[in-house]
Amino acid sequence: MIPKDRLKSRTIAVHGGARRSQYGEMAEAMYLTQGFAYPDAESAEARFVKAGEDEFIYARYGNPTTAVFEERIAALEGTEDAFATASGMAAVSGALTALLKAGDRVVASRALFGSCLYVLEEVLARFGVTVDFVDGTDAAQWVDALSAPAQVVFLESVSNPTLEVIDLPNVCRLAHQAGALVVVDNAFATPVFSRAVEHGADLIVYSATKHIDGQGRCLGGVICGPRELIRGKIEPYLKHTGGAMSPFNAWVMMNGLTTLELRVRAQAQSAQTIAEALEKHDAVAKVLFPGLPSHPQHALTQATMDGPGTVLAFDLKGGKAAAFAFMNALQVVLISNNLGDARTIATHPATTTHQRLPDPQKETLGITPGLIRLSVGLEAVEDLLDDLETALAAI
After folding, report:
1. Fewer CB within 10 Å of terminal CB in the chain, N or C?
2. How far apart are CA 115 and CA 79, in angstroms?
3. What is the DSSP letter of 58?
4. Each residue of 134-156: pLDDT tens digit?
């Protein structure tokens, strides 16, 4: 029998965590139940004291379908355990809130998704947690910020929407020296291209809505990490506050994992082709994509990741007017605020995902009026290039 630790990632994504009923079904069963019956009162009492393996109490605490997804992605990510959540932001807020208390300190990279910034600046601050932001690409700022004790470091391994890549091995080393746990939002990097665990991250957070589902069907999130943290800190908080994933969504996500690597590698290849083409276009001031030699962290990406990802951003010379004219001329590419989908999606961050940020903060983060975020899907790259070229000509 092949040892589990020798299986390749594509095999784990198909078979990891599989459970079969007495019927021996090929596709994993979907257990759409909110509760579970016990054979007797003594069994109910024993389960509430400590549930055994494959024993469940209530869907908010755990479910057989959700457990398959959790075990599968933990195996894929290379962590001991995982806890699935109702959305990506439930995973981010759940991980941070479960770890922190009043008086604690967080050091975070400043380039973050708008909702992540809200949790850090508004929610945690309201409960007495201090948050210090740094330029995530500036090693000296990390050294300075982590020269004092901290409890948590939070960052996006590849930032949304400007595609900054963080030197994760260095940040993890500095964070652990300061006594901090490192929580990494790995949505852009994906479980396929990421090496977050290998580089020292303690908890890895995903919006499973993105590449893991990857087809625009369901919301979901997941927190991966050591069993001690997942079951000792994360699970108690989330099961009592209600952020658990539904069994139906877990079934969709577990099946999404089976094709994850095939999809994101194809999408990343198309993203590379599109980024190279856009960089040569006269209407484009700048292209941000870690796969381009012009990207400031191109060498770091090659050293710490297994691919540049599926998302790129480009800045149009004509500002907001050019951006809107371009987006309104698209015929194949869709306008939305999601990413990691089978469909290619264009987003204008300054007026949507990061709209609430003050203009000076947008300027600091590089979220200009002409910036377009492009999440590359599974369409033929030739059709995407034709659509983008036609839309650029409409500016």
Report:
1. N
2. 26
3. B
4. 999 999 999 999 999 999 999 99
